[in-house]
Amino acid sequence: DAGVTQSPTHLIKTRGQQVTLRCSPKSGHDTVSWYQQALGQGPQFIFQYYEEEERQRGNFPDRFSGHQFPNYSSELNVNALLLGDSALYLCASSPLDRYSPLHFGNGTRLTVT
Amino acid sequence: GQQLNQSPQSMFIQEGEDVSMNCTSSSIFNTWLWYKQDPGEGPVLLIALYKAGELTSNGRLTAQFGITRKDSFLNISASIPSDVGIYFCAGNPQETSGSRLTFGEGTQLTVNP
To answer: How far apart are CA A58 and CA B97, in angstroms?
Structure first.
């Protein structure tokens, strides 16, 4: 039973470019959330997707957008990249149940130069 | 936004020693979770707590949901070298639902054989 899978594992982009990160949730999970983890810090919530719609959003600018597909997989898009966007981007999945904890993937390490 | 104060920031212990770390918040949390993150990987769930006063064990790990709902602790007994890693507390503030976790800054644990 595959857990949460993310691609790519590493990515280098130039300031001003756009990036798309991908996530496949754990089997049986229909809710996907994205987190940003800067070096030496805890993850910060970006947004949550359920039934192909954004349901909750953290304190991130509109440059961060996402999408969820009918098979529950998800994409995170970041436009107009800034140096400060360099971070580990984590995808997490769960059933839509407040008592089901999140399962995280191993993340995509994004470096913006 | 919400902040979790996690302490200590780092710990250096000898194999076989017990470890204790804790997390506090200025506001009420509905859930408390403890995750461990190894280098290059995503956070892995250790223990989930859903009720004030709840005390839960997972092998050598024990965690409690504080009675005030504003704190939690994690204890590790008889530490072993593979306990090395970063431990994060996380939780849902009262006004948020399951996917929107607030994370602490982490406790870096080093175990000397």
So the answer is: 12
Task: Give percent helix, percent strand, percent coil of chain A, each to the nearest 5.
Answer: 5, 50, 45
The token duo for B9 is 């920031």
Asked if the Cβ–Cβ distance from B50 to A99 is below 8 Å, we say yes
In the beta sheet, which residues pair with residue B21? B74
Lowest mean per-residue pLDDT among A21-30, A75-84, A91-100, B11-20 = A91-100
Chain A residues with CB under 8 Å of B104 CB are 42
Does B99 contact A102 at a Cβ distance shorter than 8 Å? yes
Per-state percent for chain B, helix, strand, coil, to nearest 5: 5, 55, 40
B contacts of A97 (beta carbons < 8 Å): 98
To the nearest whole percent, how much of chain A has pLDDT over 70?
98
B99·A105 Cβ contact <8 A: no
Which of B23, B35, B89, B99 best tests the A interface by mutation, with the highest count of A CBs <10 A?
B99
Please give the C-alpha separations between residue B92 and each of B9, B27, B107, in angstroms, as whole numbers. 21, 10, 19
Determine the pLDDT at residue A18.
Answer: 98
Cα A7 to chain centroid, rounded:
10
Model confidence over A58-108: pLDDT tens digits? 999 999 999 999 999 999 999 999 999 999 999 999 987 767 789 999 999
